[in-house]
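Ticket closed. Logging final result for Putative siderophore transport system ATP-binding protein YusV.
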Amino acid sequence: MPPHTRLSAQELSVNFADTQVLDQLSVSVPDGAVTAIVGPNACGKSTLLRSLARLQQASAGQVILDGKAIAAQNSKSVARRLAILPQSPLAPEGLSVRDLVLRGRTPHQSAWRQYSAKDATAVATAIAATGLEGLEDRSLHTLSGGQRQRAWIAMALAQETQLVLLDEPTTYLDLPHQIELLDLVRRLNRDTGRTVAMVLHDINLAARYCDHVIALRGGTVHSEGPPSSVITETMMGEVFNLPCTIIADPNHGTPHVIPS
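Final structure:
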């Protein structure tokens, strides 16, 4: 039985010039779960995530959000339900943590409704949830890589959406900061029930932190499901061309890939 989902792609194709990046791909993001999108370089992972957020136009097929084609929905309405943190986001020089997080409130504001008490509460809650208290007035450029990524996630949380998409959130972070960030994502999912989908490169971290894994190969879905059913020696060979042995992680019981 397919997972219950508010967000899905139906026979989605995306072309860049003469190159087909996604090829009639159909996939669902399970509600209330943490999903990892994995696969080799140039297989369409980031393109899929951007397409799910309507940042990438489809050549064919469609993305469905809450039962309707996302392309036909009002932009502000979509932004109140779905947040995306792109890969390597950029901020103006000197922007403070508080000002960055406040930008997450933009979908809830208008010419008639500017900064409100509700916005202040949402910003304070997001800063507290990501452990950034005391750093609110610091410039982003003075923070460590891990702190900076937490600030960007706080901005997405301040948007107060139930769907959060993260494109390679651990890029450029050392292993301790990767663990710290993924612990945060998992905790936010467990504490708030938010649905999270993220592109990850590290298969073992995907197995440890995610409930659902989508493995892409050549712009199509090779396999999807719980880590124990997707992260197999067969999948690693067919998707990554990597001979390996899969063992149970001694601390977490999740699949652990050991290259041959």
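The chain has a mean pLDDT of 93. No further action required.
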